[in-house]
Amino acid sequence: MLSVNGDSCAQGSRLPLRKYYLDIASEFTVHTDDRGVMLGDLAAAHRHAVSVIWNCMRFDTEEQDWRGWHVKIADDTGRTSVIVLFPIGPHRASGRDPDMGQCGSRHYPARCPKA
Q1: What is the DSSP string of 52-113?
Q2: Range of the domain at 49
Q3: Is the pLDDT score of 105 beyond 60?
Q4: How many of the other CB atoms lie within 10 Å of CB of 36?
Q5: Which position has the higher pLDDT, 92 or 69?
Q6: Is residue 109 domain-resident?
Q7: Is residue 6 part of a domain?
Q8: For 84, phi and psi rounded to 5 degrees?
Q9: For residues 110 and 102, is the Cβ–Cβ distance under 8 A?
């Protein structure tokens, strides 16, 4: 069953957290996530990957060509569960969360990829 915020719930109680690794990659570059992040389920990992992508693009001052970039979500066994693609086209936003790193993500502080 899905709760209002989209996290999976089992009979009213939360499932245990699992560690997910989010590697950012292009055809020629891979930025490996060696820390991982604890999340409730794959849907939460997908939302986190979308947030990482959005924040990398949002704080990109060099207007990086993001075609071919993606976030690979893997579980703690190393098995890839989902690959989330960066969108194609200009996506700019203003504003910055002071608690975030350069990339705008607590998960990837100050290390947005540059091709």
Answers
A1: HHHHHHHT-SS----TT-EEEEEETTS-EEEEEEPPSS--------TTS-TTS-SSSTT---
A2: 16-115
A3: no
A4: 15
A5: 69
A6: yes
A7: no
A8: -110, 120
A9: yes
- Side chain identity at 75, as an amino acid letter? D
Give the total number of structural domains in the chain. 1
In a domain, 34, yes or no: yes
Which region holds residue 48: left if phi is over 0, alpha if psi is between -120 and 50, else beta? alpha
When pLDDT is cut at 50, 70 and 90, the band that residue 54 belongs to is very high
pLDDT of 106 strictly over 50: no
Strand 30-31 with 18-25, pairing: antiparallel
pLDDT at 86 over 70: yes
First-to-last C-alpha distance (Å) of the chain:
41
107 in a structural domain: yes
